[in-house]
Amino acid sequence: AKVNLALHVTGQRADGYHLLDSLVSFAPFGDRLEIAPAEEISLTVAGPEAAGVPADARNLVWKALAATGLGAARMRLVKHLPAASGIGGGSSDATAAILGALALAGLSGQLAAGRLRAGALDLDLAALGADLPMCFAPHPARATGIGEHLAPVTLPPLPALLVNPRVEVPTPTVFKALTRKDNPPIDPIPAFADTRACIAWLATQRNDLEPPAIAAAPIIADVLAALEALPGARLVRMSGSGATCFALFETLPEAQTAEARLAAAHPAWWSASGTLGNQEEAARPQPL
Fold this sequence. Notes:
Blueprint: E1 2-12, E2 18-26, E3 32-37, E4 42-46, H1 60-68, E5 73-78, H2 89-105, E6 110-112, E7 115-118, E8 121-124, H3 125-128, H4 132-136, E9 141-145, E10 149-152, E11 158-164, H5 171-176, H6 195-202, H7 210-216, H8 219-228, E12 235-238, E13 245-248, H9 252-265, E14 270-276, H10 280-283
Parallel strand pairs: 4-5
Antiparallel strand pairs: 1-2, 2-9, 3-5, 6-7, 7-8, 9-10, 11-13, 11-14, 12-13
Helix pairs in contact: 1-2
């Protein structure tokens, strides 16, 4: 799961893509993709969040594998993250398919300016989806352009609780409702002494998509209010284009206690807690 700790919309290109300045980090939980060589591409979808997720060429996992041209594969996607929720689950799944295809082909790739190069492969990840470059290497980063220009950043551990009210908010709808598209970029990112200092600085930044997302799905405001009421919550914000929101805490036990309390009050909402940070090791392909 990718979390936009801050997301500033700074402009719009002639082709319609919005220019972003975003600080992202990654959660220690996500979906799981199993991949094996096959004569043709196939995909099955399982798991607690599988409902409504296509298992054919409409799925970004399928599209990403096909785009590599590295051969067919049999894939099984186990969904733990809610779909269309602003935390990059589909993009992370797609990069998992690409990483899996590279592993099966015995290749390793290099990513630069949104393009992945591995042997004869030269793939424009950003063309598949703006979140793919940052999800390909899931470590804290500042993403600019449409998300393809990445600069690694150092952040302290950020214990977090993520919550989604199970309402899909179409990204185009949110961007269309954005009243201003030339907002100031993120402030210079300082060196943080500790988690508390980082959270205090993040509080001075924003997510420009939060107001239009709330207008499209007012329940997002209810989620933010529920998070703000939790003991120990230091910062509450929406991630991406919604509807997933997050609260940051100083310690992981605080986040876990808050998750239990919120789950009891809102059992129909999806929630998960963990420490945001570098998840590259967890994202590496492993033999089954």
